[in-house]
Amino acid sequence: MTSPAPVVLAFLDPAFPDGRVADATQPQLLVTDLGVTRGDGVFETMLAVGGTVRKMQAHLDRLGGSAAALDLAIPDQEAWRRVIAAAVARHRSENPPADPAADELVVKLVVTRGVEGEAPTAWVQASPAGAAGRRQRETGIDVILLDRGYDSDVAERAPWLLLGAKTLSYAVNMAALRHAHKQGADDVIFLSSDGRVLEGPTSTVLLAHVEKSDDGTTVKRLITPQLDSGILAGTSQGALFAAAKAAGWELGYGPLEPRDLMDADAVWLISSVRLLAPVNRIDGKEIGTPSVQKELTAELSGLFAAIH
Ligand code: PLP
């Protein structure tokens, strides 16, 4: 039997500025916590490479935005930064990374509404990143298109659906992934009921076109679905777009339809832990141009790796 991956758990608690460290193998939450009974809360998932959390400010800002959408009062960013730094340092000192090439920790920030009438429960959890994500960056993934059942205007019309917030209610996203796995696929791209490309259950969709302009120069365009279509604003997409723009890429924001994916030179799903995963097939059909996909993946992965 393999031993469970080591987890460092630290609760945010005003009496412990560096976090109240707790045993992750023991029960720590009350069964009446509204995060447990209703999935009422928010979270972030970040990646620490070599002990440094990537895109920390963007994640803290998004956590604040998600909490505001739920009217949830959460600890301030300074408190989060202290506990995150302490949890990552503790994990690395208790479990020195054996392989520098795999020195990656997943750092989760979680806030639940807590027990009715009491303060929210907030914690940081650090654990080793699994090998599966690293593998998919190399091999690429097969995805299927699934209907999410909402139209692309619903986020604005019905803000209580919390579509742009990263809430703890991820059961639907996980069910979509299980559905894909049963079909032999690795991942999902959700479509709106009006046929727009939205996002993956845990990732943002990107596509690229490469064209020769009239003067013979190569124009590279990186495109993502428009943010107001009820998707989560990806911190990875935001950071990569800034880096790609600085490197001379043109940028575009949807609306996108499935045929835009099929006609692209390359498609990726991007997220903080798996990073840039090239999409090989959609609904069984090969997409993109393999040599172009390979070249663009290498270029964008390099730009993304340089981001802190
Ligand atoms: N969209 C959804 C629904 C997600 O859950 C995630 C991340 O988990 C993303 C997009 C990508 O966000 P990020 O790049 O900030 O990890």
TrEMBL record:
Listed EC numbers: 4.1.3.38
Superkingdom of origin organism: Bacteria
Enzyme class: lyase
Lyase among keywords: yes
InterPro entries (alphabetical): Aminotrans_IV, Aminotransferase-like, BCAT-like_C, BCAT-like_N, Class-IV_PLP-Dep_Aminotrnsfr
Keywords: Lyase
SUPFAM superfamilies: D-aminoacid aminotransferase-like PLP-dependent enzymes
Molecular function as annotated in GO: 4-amino-4-deoxychorismate lyase activity
Pfam families: Aminotran_4
Family in the record: Belongs to the class-IV pyridoxal-phosphate-dependent aminotransferase family.
NCBIfam families xrefs: PRK07849.1-1, PRK07849.1-2
Name of protein: 4-amino-4-deoxychorismate lyase
Organism in which the protein naturally occurs: Pseudarthrobacter defluvii
